[in-house]
Amino acid sequence: MVKSNSRKWFVRAGQEPTDFELRMMDFERRGFLVPSRKLIKNSEQIEGIRQSGLINTGVLDLIEKEIREGMTTDEIDSMVYDFTTSHGATPAPLNYEGFPKSVCTSINEVVCHGIPSKNRVLKEGDIINVDVSTILNGYYSDASRMFCIGKVSEEKERLVRVTKECLRIGMEAAKPYGFVNEIGCAIESYAKKNGYSVVRDLAGHGVGLAFHEEPDVNHYASSKKGMMLVPGMVFTIEPMINMGKHHVVFNQKDGWTVTTKDGLPSAQWEHTFLMTENGLEILTY
Ligand code: MF3
Ligand code: CO
Question: End-to-end distance of the chain based on CA atoms, in angstroms?
Answer without folding.
Answer: 43
